[in-house]
Every structure is written in C-alpha cells, then in structure tokens.
Amino acid sequence: MSEMHHDHELEMKKALRPEIERDNTYWLSLEQWKDDPEFMKAAETEFQSSPLRGSDEEGGWARREFLKLMGASIAMASAGCIRRPVQKIVPYNKQPEEVTLGIANYYSSAYFDGSEGLGVLVKTREGRPIKIEANPGHPFSVSGLSIRSQASLLNMYDPERLKGPQRNLFNEKKSNSQVVDVKWEELDKKVTEQLKKGDVVVLTGALASPATRAVVGDFTQAFKAKHVVWQAFSNEEVREGQKASYGDDVVPAYRFDKAKMIVSIDADFLGTWIAPTAFTNQFVGGRKDIKNMNRLVSFDSNYSLTGANADIRMKIKPSQQLDVVMGLLHEIIVKKGATSQAGNAAVKSALAPFADVAKKLGVDPALFAKVAADLLANRGESLVVAGGLQTVTEKSKELQIAVNFLNSVLDNDGKTVDHKGGNPALQGSYSDLAALINDMTTGKVKTLIIHGVNPAFVLPAELGFGDAAKKVDMVIYTGDRIDETGVFADYITPDNHALESWSDAELAAGVYTICQPAIRPMYDTRSFQLSLMTWAYIAEQGPSRLRDYETFYDYLRVFWKSDIQPKAGRGQDFEDFWQETLQKGYAGELSKGSGSRSFKVDAFTAIKPAPATEGFELVLYPTAQMGDGSMNNVSWLHELPDPVTKVVWDNYVSVSLATAEKHNLKQASVVELTVAGKTIELPVLIQPGLHDDVLAIAVGFGRTRVGKVGNGIGKNAFALATAKNGAMIFSGQKAEFKKLSKKYELAVTQGHHSMEGRNIVAEATLADYNKNKGAGVHRHHTWNIWSGHEYSGHKWGMAVDLHSCTGCSACVISCQSENNIPVVGKKYVLEGREMHWIRIDRYYTGNPADAEAVFQPVMCQHCDNAPCETVCPVLATVHSDEGLNEMVYNRCVGTRYCANNCPYKVRRFNWFNYAKLIEKPLHMALNPSVGVRVRGVMEKCTFCVQRIQDAKTVARNEKRAVKDGDVKTACQTACPAGGIVFGDLNDPNSQVAKIFKTEERGYALLEEWHAKPSVRYLSKIRNNDKESTGGHNGHGTAKQGEHS
Amino acid sequence: MMKRNPLVLGNKTLKDVSDDICAPVERFPSKGWMGMFLGAKTLLLFYIAILAGVVGVGIGLLGVNSPVFWGTMIVTFVFWIGIGHAGTLISAVLFLFRQKWRTSVARTAEAMTVFAVMTAGIFPLLHTGRPWLDYWLFPYPNQRGPLWVNFRSPLLWDVFAVSTYATVSMVFWYIGLVPDFATIKDRAKNKLRRTIYGALSLGWRGTARNWSHYEMLYLILAGLSTPLVLSVHTIVSFDFAVSNLPGWHTTIFPPYFVAGAIFSGFAMVVTLMTLVRIGFPEFKNYVTLDHMEVMNKIIMTTGMLVGYAYASEFFIAWYSGNQYERFVFVNRAFGPYGWAYWTMVSCNVLIPQLFWFKKLRRSIPVMFVVSIFVNIGMWFERFVITVTSLHRDFLPSSWGMYAWSWFDTGVLVGSFGMFLTLFLLYLRLFPAISIAEIKPVLNVGYDDKGGHH
C-alpha cells in the first residue's frame, strides 16, 4: 500500500467519522473545556499514539517511516539468503454446496474386505476423506470398526497407487515385463477385440455388492464368460461342512449375541474369522450383564485374540481339533446319554474312539466334562464354532461336520446358527480356482479378468498360477498397483478405490448398504464395474442394462429400483427409499432366524479318528491387522502391535516356552522351517500358552511387489500351504525346524508380560464377583494436603471397561487416524519410539505354559494431580478448567521431564521431524482439526479435545448445553465392544459420571500414587467356575499384599 | 608442637617461584603439550560435529526413548557438574578455613570447575527437543501474555543454580588470577604479551590499596561460593528427588549428590594433578605428595559417604514398604543394568579403600588409576540413577531399555575433548599455581634450620 493511498484512505476515514457534538458537561482537561485549538487537533485523531498517525511534522522518524526503513534493512540483510517461495492460497472460487470450511461431512458407506463387512461413515473435510467412522445402528456391524476398515483410508492415499491404465510389453514368452502408460480408449479397443474371441473368465474376490454381482453376471452373459470367485480367506471349509451336513452351500450367520455358552475350536471370531467386529459386538453384548454373562471356551492352537478373551482357554494342536469336538459329543451323547441322538448306535460307534479325549489333550477331564455339560445345559443357547486357516487341515471337512452335528444336537441350528442370515458374498473357492488354473494351463482360457484378488501372492507354488497365466492370451488386472499378480497381466486397468466410487453392499442377507464416493477419483482410474460395462458397450454385447448406462451410478440406481427396493423398500417411493438409505446408511434388516435343518447323520458317522501324530505341526493364521496382506503397504497396519504378541513390522514363528527351552531358542533366534519340502527362514517368538508341538506363523506378510512400506516385511507364509487333490491344507502339516546361527531382532512394543504382582489390571472370577462386586480391586486410602482444582463447568472423564475390552486394537488405529499420529518404522520401535497415543497393554497371568491374557488400553489419564504439569519448566503442559491435561506444542521446548514423571508413560516425544516425512498425497489423510507436531515436542492423548470443541460449538449454535453423548472420542467410536465411555463428570446424569460414582468394579490405575486420574478402569470378570483367578502363582491381581 | 611438612619443596626463593610458575606460559610449548592439545582439539572438533548432528537432525540420534527419556546428556551433565565441586570446595571453603595446603592446587582446581561447568552447561541446553528455544527457560519479560516460567519445576531451579554457579566460580577464579596476570605482564618481553596480560590484570599495580581491596573481594567471593558447593548439587539432585519416580524420589539425594560431587571432583583434581606433575616437572615442588595424599584422604572419606548413601537407599527402599520403590532397587542391583550398578559400587566404594594404606595413597601411579576408576564409577552412578530408575517404573508394559547409540558415545567422549582443550589452553596461557598465594606459604623466615636468607 503506497503512502499516497494511505493518506487518501485516512482522509476518507476522517470524513466518515461522525461529528462529535461539543458538550462541555464532561471534559477531559482544562484545554478541552476552553476549546483550545491545539487540543482539538489532537483530539481529532482517535488515539493518542495510533500507528495510523501520519508522518510526524515535528521531524524525526514517524513510526511508519521507521518500519519502512527497518523492513528495507531486513530485506537487504536477507537478500543473500534463500527466499521463501511465494505461496498463494485461494479459497473456493465456487463453494461446493455441501462443503463448509472447517465442518466435516459424513457419508454413509460400507467396507468389505472379502470376509468382513461393516457399515461405515466416511468423514470428509473440505472434500477429502480423513477418517472412517462407525455407522452406529447398522443392523449388522452395530457399532465399532475393524483395524483394516479404518486403514483402508490410507490405502486410498497410497503414493504408489497406479495413476492410470498400464500395458505390459511382454515378449512372446512373457518372461520380461516393461510397463507403459496406455490410454483408456486404446485399451478398451484392444480388450474388446480380445473379449470377442471368447473363452473369457472373470476371477473376482468375494463380491459383497449385489449390483457388482449383477454387472459381472450380465457381463458373463454378454461374453459367455465364466465367473470364478476366490478369496484368500475363502471360508470354503465352512461351506463344505454345511453342504455335507445339511446340503446348503452357505456360510451361515453366527449369532454370538444369542449364545450363553460358546465353544470355539480355533475359530478366531474376535480377531480374524468372518466378521470379527460384528462378532465382538455380539459377544461382548452377551457379557455386559455380568451376573448372566456368557461363557467362552476356546481350544486354541495359536494364541488367538479369541483364546486371549476366553473364560477358559485350552491349548491344542491342529490335529486335535476334531478330537475336541468328537470328545464333547462323546461326553454329551455317550456319557450323559443326552439328546435325541443318544439312542443312535451308528453315532455311538462313531464316537467310541473318542472316549478319552481329555486325557489325549492333556486337559483336566473334569473341566472337559464341564464344558460339555455347560453346552448341554444351554441347549439352543450355545454355539460351537470352528473355522479359519487354523482349521483348514486334512480333516477340516470332518471337523466342520462334527461341529455342525454338535450344534444340531444342541438345538443351536436355526437359533445361534442361522443359515439364512449369512453373508451371501462368501462364495470363494480354492477348488474352483484350481480348476481355473488347470483350464488356463490347458489353453482353455483366452482372456482372464482378475479383480480384487492377488492369487500370485497367496497361492502356493505347486498350483502354478504364474505359468498358467502366461498361457492366457490376455490377462487384465484391476489392481491398484503392479503387484505379484499384476506382473502377469497384459493390461492393468486400475479400479477406483472404494472411497472413490459408487457401489453397494449386502453384509448379511437382507441388509443392504449403498457405498457413496467420498472423493472424486484421484487419478485416471475407472471402476471395475464401469470397465465391464464399457467393454460390453463397445462390443455391443450383453443385456441392455449393461450397455445403456454411462456410469455405474446409473446402473446401481436401476438395479436398486428393480432388485433391492422390492426386498427392502417397504413400499416406499424409490427416491425416498434411496435417500433414506443414503442417510441411514442401510436398508433392510437382519434375518430373524431360520428353522432347524435335518442333519445328514451319514456324513457324521463316516468320520474316522485321525491317527495320532507326533512332532511339530504347522499353524498358519491371519492377523487382525494384516489380514490376507492386501493392504500391506499401509504403514499403520505394520506399526500396529499385534493384539496378542505386540510385535510390529514382522511375522515370525511362535513356539512354546518348553519348545524354546528344549531347542535352545531365544527371542532373536532364526530358524529354518521345513514344511513338505518347502523352507522358510523366520525369527522365533516365544509365546506363552502355546501347545508344545505347534509352530505358528502369520500369513499376509512377505509381499514383494506391494510398495515401499510393505515389500520384504516378514515372509510369505501362504507359500507353506499345500494344494492336495484340489483342496488346500494350511494348518496341521508336519513341520520341522533347524536353528540357524543368525540373529534377527523382533520389534516388540511391550517387552514385559507379567504384572509383577502389581494391581494394574484388576481381575476376578464370576464367583468372586457374585460375592463382592469389587472383587479383585485393591483399594487404597489416599488423602490430599491441598484442596485440588476446581471444575466449575465441565469435567471430562473416561471409563474403560476391561471386561468388555477384547484387545482388538481398533481404537489404536482410530486414534492414529484422528490425531495424525506418525509411524516411525521398525528401527525406531526397537528403540522405543513408537508414537501411539493409546496403547493396549497385554499381560499374561497364571502359569506361563497355560497363560491367560488380559488387556488394558492405556491413554493419557488426565490426572487431577498431574505429575507432568508440575515439572515442566516452561508451562507447556497445563491443567484446563475442564480437567484436561493440555499439551501446548508451541510452548514445548522438549525437556521431556514430563514424560519421566508420568507414572503411566503415555507421553510420546517427536524425536525427529516425523511430520516432514509424510509423503504426498498421504498428507491428505491428515485431520485438519489436529495439528501435526514438529520435532522436539512432546505429545499425548488429548481426550480428543478437538471433538470436545466441536461439540461445544454445535451446542452453542443450537443454544443449548452440551449433553451426554455429544462428545465421543475417536477410540470410543471405533470400539466394537462399547468398552469406552466418555463424558462430563460434572453432569450427574452422564453415563460416565454414573460409572464413576456407582460402579463397584471401577478403580483408578495406580490409585495409591494419587495422581487422581480422570480415567477409571472397570475390572475384568472371568466366567470360569474358579474363585480368585488371580490367586495362582503370584502373578495375579485378586490377592495383593497390603502396600503403601 | 608437631612439625608440619613444608608446603613447597626444594628451598625455593621468591624468584624461583615466579620463574617456575611462569615458565609454561613463557616458553615455547613442549612437544608433549602440543601432542595432547592436538588430540584434545581433534576430539573437540568431533564433539562439535556430533552436537551439530544432534541439533540438526534431532535428539533421537541419541539413545533416549520411551521410557528412558533422559540419557547420556543428563548423565554426563550431572557428571561434569559434580566434577566442578572440588574446585569450589578447595578454593573457597578451604580458603575460609585457612587451609594453607590448598594454595598450590586451588588455581587449577578452580579452573577445572570453570571448565567442567562449561562442559556440563552444554548438555541441558542441547538435550532439549528444540534447543533454539532454550531461552524460554529464563524468566524474562516477554510479549506472550506475559508467559512466565514454571517456578515449581526443579528444572527451572536448575537453570538458576547452574548459571549462578557458573558466574560466581568464573568471577572468583578470574579475580584470583589478577595479581598473577600482573606478574606475567611485568615479566613480559614483548609488547603484545604485555598488552594482553596488562588488560587481563585490570591495571593491577600491586599497591597496598590494590592488595587490600583484592583480599576483601576474594574473601567475599569465597563466602559467596561456599554455599554454592552445597546448593548447586542439591538443586541438581532436586531434578530427580522432586519427581515422583521410584529411585529418584528420595530425600537422601541432596547430601548424597553433594558428597558424590566432592568425591568425583577430587578424583578429577587428582587425575589432572598427576598429569600436571608429569607434564610440568617443575610443579612437583609445589604440588607435593603431601597435597596428593590429603586429597586422597578426602576421596576415601567421601567414597565411604556415597557408599553409605547406597546402603541407606536400599534400606529405605525396603523399609518404606513401597513395592515400586523396592522393585527399583532390586532391579538396580540384579536387573538388566546390574552390571552398571556393580561397576559403580566397585569403583566408588571398594577401590578407594586402597587409600587406607599410606604407601598406596602416596603412590602417583596408584592414585592415578584409582582416580580414573572413581571418575568411571561416578559417571556410572549417574547412569544408574537416571537410566535404571526410568527403564522399569510403574507399569511393566512400558518397560524398556536405553537404546545406546554411537552418538551417545560421541557425546560422552567428545565432552572430554572440550574439557581437555580448555584445560590445556589454561595450562599454557595462565599461571597454573597462584604465584601471589604461594609466596606467603614458603618456608622463608620460619625455617627452623636457619634458612639461607
């Protein structure tokens, strides 16, 4: 602004100033009273020392002059330095209708990973998705999120996604690969030409989207193509079992919410099996009323999350899975003579070899009999499940049949097992894929379209997928990168990310969801469905609905109008139905249960006992964080501690304590494992509570072509699977190992597993609880010499129910996503620099060989007497009048004294400039309501202070007080178990205040240290017929010596 | 009356004294000195590079982590601050108690204090996450509210304590040097030297008024310094004692730290003095075996004091009945850092017991080795306190180990580069023994053999 301009402006301002009427009633000074002209001149300028004053006539430098010169001298001084780039920001030229800067929009959608489905809300800010939130009230997923559903956000912003279609310039033998960009038009032309030649196969993963299934159906009709469905976690064993037992080729719905007695034989339904988030919700729902809580008995060949949460956990090896079920049946049918099958001689003779199962398993026969008795006592309200990779053995079909038989004799079929309510998408089949590979090898497939799966990574070498793919004229792959399967493709037609495209989902039979795009496709990608539609359109083949529409959105609407509305529309107008579905995020309802089916007893009586085995058995298992490895390039997943082992950035062989001791294995030892002639080199993890004959390895690691983050992390254990007569065997294979002289450090976020007899996780048995609701909680008399803080407005507090918490770790990812928490990598986790604001501590209790596990989420406790606050020399961490322990990043110098003084060690320090390392476009996933932290400052859980502020703003705008439930922390919204309650302790009616006041299980962590945390933990109750779980071996918590 | 050993040997005349003490300043540096200086300077440059790396990249280059948020820098800070204490004790406290034997070692001990405090001072400044904002730790008027510092934080007290200590000991040291600077100026043969030392001597002319003022000021400064001997390390110990961490939160810390500081300081004086005696043989007549023996006695005494403190800590940990406290101490001795604990105990408690034997406490090689062990032991004492208390505190889930990196080694070793560079420069440029104070303690005048004057 020039000086001239400024003067002019000043004049204008003066002219606009209202004339002050002269009134001598009140006067400032004698000069004013006398109307002294000089005073009047001075009074004209509003302020005596305004910076807007013109140049000083009396000479000398006026302020502006001085500033100008100073500015010039600074400019000259810095002329030799690097100039800061000129960066302009431009607000919305045309503001989109729905977008208000600073206000988040939520779009309902669904997440499906091939096995698990969830109704979700996509939180967007200024047009970009920043977080996946739960869609509370969704009939299937109800509340909470899984780890991977939340991490799928980061998958969209993966810098290594393909930016457009690609063509692979193979030589004739397809032995080389050079990939070039290609235009969609050109690609479509080539592909269509090829499709017209016939022999087309579409290989997809499980498709939860009815509309996509319809598109694929139309497409197969158009080109007389075959559709093969395959998924790494196919749940084929369940369907095979159902087929053999009842003739239904379905994965039924399991209703853990209706079961009082649950027995799981290696089905990790709380961690990885089918739909763990919904199952967690159902399972924990059945435990909240403690006096009538359900009981979970787990026979576990790996230390699974389900085993960790079991009331009674028994370690087995895979070859004993069938024995367990048959043993239980023997107890019920033969020993107790119960159920309608008691008189069936064929059944009895089939069960005869299983009379001494308890002895064979090495478990207390009385305990085993009690499990059977409990099952029987809860007929129609019990549930026996088996499934997952751990159970895909040579005997997996027999196992499923036996389980089905057990459910049938217990009258659970049709009640807790609902064959009509399952997810119809779960149709993946290894045998179909094996047949397809056979066809490919024999040249029966000219065109192969692969969508949503990565067979080249998952399939063991003997299936020969790679060689078979080379014999196909044209392979089209819709993956978002040139991965293990992508290298075999001639054309890569990258699909949109799920958050970029319209779709729908049927997560359980009859429950429909529309997936809305939350962002325009970031790159030149095209949805798989539209690709199929386009090719049909160009080829002018297929049903008209496939060819007529320009977008999949149009197809979707037409499909919904014709196919979904009649089922779930309740006679509404279509537009209303559509709108309502978009708003609610779902339509339809869960199956109300189905009648019981007649069991084909022949299938059962054919079961023969497996010959006793010796030596080590392999257990392959998926992990909750990595799944089948498809999102292996998402750093959040690698840095999320495994819920049970707490290892990050690796997979490993878990061995029992006794095995480790016997073979002189240490935590950093490396072994060479041999399974059916295949070898793999892996580090050893010593796992308490594991069967001595088990060697357990997680799958989903060891990708080679996924990207910078995931490449070479761990080893691919899928490779150890064996294909035998068209069926797969994952677990129960004989395994051997050889200790190598190498060492390999595993990064573990929790290196110590015992509570050292401290009162950290309070735990009691149901028997204890029935006597005393506060059982297991050690209380202390504490007192203060000062009055403490006053909280006149809100006082925020949190209650964490350890009885509900399963340790699933969804909260950790939710917090990471909400609060822009950096990932530091294995090297720095080894050095103890992980950054998670909420961590889940896992302690083992009891005898290490049969260790039980407890979980405890620990976040900043927001202490009233916060030890961190007093020691910060610069007041960078201070107490708010609402009881928050606030961290002022700008003021933090980084002495780290606060962290030393924190008894909970929840503070995290920015050892390096992590925020600077965020690669574009991953920065788009950052939550703009939360700052990124620079290096050298401390950070920690804020109780999601940004959400508190938002809730307050909303309440203020609506001219009301903040009410209970307005503020939900990120960890709380993600928790499928409803284990976290947050709210205002000063509101006597808030849920959290009631828990603080009345819940007898409540206790403050390290109560005797009297930091007075704002977090209360509620003790864990184990329903295991014992008294004082914690009593044994001094590791427990129920009986503590008096101290301090 | 018992006859005392003469404080200065060799029947020195007053001129001899001036000649001897000024010699290292006036002659061309010896090869030995050059070699040591080059070595120390290289180490210093290495140190600067290490520190530049830490400041430039992040404190994460060191082994600090969660749960051990303080590591080598704080350990070495306390180590060097402790070293400084002997200097102040010798020069101020012994001065007030009229301990004449202090004269010949006081100057060097005081120099050691100044350099040790300088070396130490670097650490709290650079161990912060954002060292460029360290000035926020000072309560100065500002435009942020004004936003003041947290007067409840022991770290702030530390800032005051260390800066006061640095200032007072530097002034005290310098004032003591003034008459000697004048001596060097008077002896100077070239103009540059005369000018520089003239300026340094602040116009000292040796008049009665000069002496009168000088002695008064020296006495006052000695009086000022004396409480600092107790206060500085007391406040440094508050950094630990005022926190609520088991293993830190102990009332014994202030006296224990002070005793330890004097212990380590004397050990360092002995180390340096044995080296000075080797490097400048003429000083053997001034820094006699009697001096060394007295200091060794102090080492043994304070060594037993810290030994008592170690035992007392264990007793109190048991007696308190506090399970966390008990655990920390058991873990200290028998946990994964047990080796550090036993290194500390052997170096600080066991090895100084050798000084019960007169022959050993008067043997230069023995005392050199012992003093080195004591220095090692005292560094480990701070390591044990800082690291082993932090690495396993309340919740076993957060337990961890210190992630020692070679930057830690660089920082620790490099700090000796800084200290030794300064110390060698001092030996070369400043009179290492107080000429003005040594002359009055010569046996001149009361030599019972009649003397030769």
What does it look like?
The complex is a heterodimer of chains A (1044) and B (453). With 1044 residues, chain A is of the alpha/beta class. Helices cover 28% and strands 18% of the residues of chain A. Chain A is built from 33 helices and 41 strands. In chain A, the strands form 13 sheets. In chain A, strands 5-4-16-15-14-6-7 form a seven-stranded mixed beta sheet, sandwiched between helices. Chain A is globular. Mean pLDDT of chain A is 87; it is low at 47-59 and 1029-1044. With 453 residues, chain B is mostly helical. Chain B contains 15 helices and no strands. In chain B, helix 3 (72-96) crosses helix 8 (253-279) and helix 4 crosses helix 5 (154-187). The model of chain B is unreliable at 448-453 (pLDDT under 50). The chains are: A alpha/beta (1044), B mainly alpha (453). The interface between A and B is large, with 60 and 53 residues.
Mean pLDDT of chain B: 88
Gyration radius over CA of chain A: 33 Å
Alpha-beta content class of chain B: mainly alpha
Percent range of helical residues of chain B: 55-70%
Name the descriptors.
heterodimer; A: 1044 residues; alpha/beta; seven-stranded mixed beta sheet; six-stranded mixed barrel; 28% helix; 18% strand; globular; disordered C terminus; B: 453 residues; mainly alpha; 15 helices
Q: Summarize this, please?
A:
The complex is a heterodimer of chains A (1044) and B (453). Chain A is of the alpha/beta class and 1044 residues long.
How is the secondary structure organized here?
The complex is a heterodimer of chains A (1044) and B (453).
Chain A: H1 3-16, H2 30-33, H3 37-44, H4 63-78, E1 104-112, E2 117-125, E3 128-134, H5 147-156, E4 166-168, E5 179-181, H6 184-195, E6 200-204, H7 210-223, E7 226-229, H8 236-246, E8 253-254, E9 261-265, H9 276-285, E10 295-300, H10 305-308, E11 312-315, H11 321-335, H12 345-351, H13 357-361, H14 365-377, E12 382-386, H15 396-409, E13 417-418, H16 430-441, E14 447-451, H17 455-458, H18 465-470, E15 474-477, E16 491-492, E17 503-508, E18 511-515, H19 528-539, H20 544-548, H21 552-568, H22 574-584, E19 587-588, H23 601-605, E20 616-621, H24 635-639, E21 647-648, E22 653-655, H25 657-662, E23 669-675, E24 678-686, E25 694-698, E26 722-724, E27 727-729, E28 734-743, E29 747-748, E30 763-765, H26 766-771, E31 796-801, H27 810-818, H28 826-830, E32 839-845, E33 852-858, H29 867-871, E34 877-879, E35 885-887, H30 897-901, E36 908-909, E37 938-939, H31 945-957, H32 970-974, E38 980-984, H33 991-998, E39 1002-1003, E40 1015-1018, E41 1020-1022
Parallel strand pairs in A: 6-7, 6-14, 9-10, 9-12, 10-11, 14-15, 15-16, 20-25, 22-24, 30-41, 31-40
Antiparallel strand pairs in A: 1-2, 2-3, 4-5, 4-16, 8-13, 17-18, 18-19, 20-28, 21-29, 22-25, 23-24, 23-28, 26-27, 31-38, 32-33, 34-35, 36-37, 39-40
Chain B: H1 14-26, H2 31-57, H3 72-96, H4 103-126, H5 154-187, H6 191-200, H7 208-241, H8 253-279, H9 289-320, H10 323-334, H11 338-350, H12 358-361, H13 364-391, H14 406-429, H15 435-438
Helix pairs in contact in B: 2-14, 3-4, 3-7, 3-8, 3-13, 4-5, 4-8, 4-14, 5-6, 5-7, 7-8, 8-9, 8-13, 9-10, 10-11, 11-13
